[in-house]
Amino acid sequence: MVKVMRSFVRGPLEPYVEGFAAELCRQGYTRNSADGHVCFVAHLDRWLLAESLGVQDLGEATIQRYLSERRAAGYVLYLSVKAMRPLLEFLAPLGVLPTEPPTRVDAVEELVSRYRDYLLTERGLTPGTVAGYVHVARPFIASRCTGEELDLAGLTAADALAFVLASCPGRATGSAKLIVTVTRSLLDWMHLTGIVEVSLSAAVPAVAGWKLSGLPQALTPAQLRALVASCDRRTPTGRRDYAIVLLLARLGLRSGEVARLGLDDIDWHRGELRVVGKGNRGESLPLPADVGAAITAYLRRGRGSSAQGRSVFVRVHAPHRALTAGGIGNVVNAAGERAGLGHVHAHQLRHSAATAMLRAGSPLAEVGQVLRHRSAFNTAIYAKVDQDALAVLARPWPVDKNGGVS
Known about the structure:
The protein is mostly helical. Helices cover 52% and strands 4% of the residues. Helix 1 (14-26) crosses helix 4 and helix 9 (221-229) packs antiparallel against helix 10 (236-251).
């Protein structure tokens, strides 16, 4: 049990500290970590007492003032709002925190919110993709703001073109293409909703770039074996990481798809996985025996009882919430560092899965089905790695009768 009495919590937080400590333990915090949080609460409690403040005063302004004074006092830990989150999440359901006045939503954010809802509900894009779209759309909408008013009725093709030309220079090709895609999407949506009379998306030029110009950066079989072997399956973390790497490498899943995988998505009787991919499309894939065994080992001796929600893969450190797509990427990168491979991106394992299927004799159409590509054109890039098949197409270099190059 956490040593609450040693922390001398005798101010406005005293009625809550015992329950808070118990909640930390329930969520899987180690004793040292829980002790640290309780000591932090004790310091906050003393500060509130000295300032003649109560729990009902723990609004954003008060929290920022407290953290500022804590930093100024020379403390080196628990210095951000993130450190306050466990306590605030515990107190919020109790109804003792102040109700913050609703923030005024300006015209730009109101339109951004409507566009976000459209992307989520009508287009079915994932929250991560939507966040990227909104990040690009917001400055374009803001550029039409004069004071507190939005001038969208007067939007012209030249305005859209000027925004793209000003935003794209100096960016990588992929980033510039995203700006073009989002701008076109936003202009089409404005037309569909009647904000502008005609669609201006055709005025946005394409970004120069050549598809299929590169080679998929797949790992060699030896590198893949080293990556898998780097996961120490004697530990709960290693069992989790091993299952994640196998899912990515054997089934070619995207990192976001692994992060969204839920306990209810695994049909153990049929030996299938339900994968939710791009556009929130759910599809079933066969569950290989070795992948199923790896997931089972993790669920039995890795995913603790304090895990929150129904996600298969959760964080190692408390609170044990679902891993994000970024967390999946960190798992793969850490495995690559341990294996001496340097930085390894999670998507490289998807390329590795496709390459392995081709080398085993699977046709491109079958590879596309496993990768769940909407278009066969997306799978065509993997034809480049099938060098044996490409060798048949290669014609000998012409030479003259004397053996010289023509």
